[in-house]
Design goal:
It is a single chain. By secondary structure, the chain is an alpha/beta fold. The strands form 2 sheets. Strands 3-8-7-2-4 form a 5-stranded mixed beta sheet. The chain starts with 10 loop residues before the first strand and ends with a strand.
């Protein structure tokens, strides 16, 4: 269903949407980017290249993220089809396109405002044998 169309959504949420990027990595990838397991942090300027590197060098999965979309994604699994609508803002970039596709696959209806001046927020979840690390680029 296209954006900005009428839905039968019983549950509406809004917040800052993020494109979640999930991938299994080794400890060397974390070390290379100054990260540690069992941690959640905001990306530094030096860490922002890891987002593109991760997608190029690892098998990454894209999910609709951010607390609001995560909540609605979980609710949509329990509710009848077309029960959720998410409202938020994204950039005018390829990450927004990936986010739209991931949200659609999850059964979420979205109404994203597009900001040509700001990028779409991303969060990577790096899964290792000894623990996970999350890095957000807001």
């Amino acid at each position: 269903m296209p954006e900005n169309s009428v839905h039968n959504g019983a549950l509406v949420g809004f917040c800052n949407p993020l494109l979640d990027v999930v991938a299994r990595v080794d400890a060397g990838f974390l070390q290379k980017h100054g990260l540690k397991t069992h941690d959640a942090t905001l990306a530094t300027v030096d860490q922002t290249p890891l987002f593109k590197e991760l997608v190029k060098t690892h098998e990454a999965k894209f999910l609709p993220g951010g607390s609001g979309q995560n909540t609605l994604r979980g609710a949509q699994l329990l509710l009848p089809a077309d029960s959720t609508v998410f409202i938020g803002a994204v950039g005018q970039d390829s990450n927004a396109d990936k986010l739209r596709e991931a949200a659609q696959k999850a059964g979420l209806h979205t109404d994203y405002m597009v900001s040509p001046d700001k990028p779409t927020g991303t969060c990577v979840l790096l899964i290792t044998d000894s623990g996970n690390s999350m890095v957000a680029d807001l």
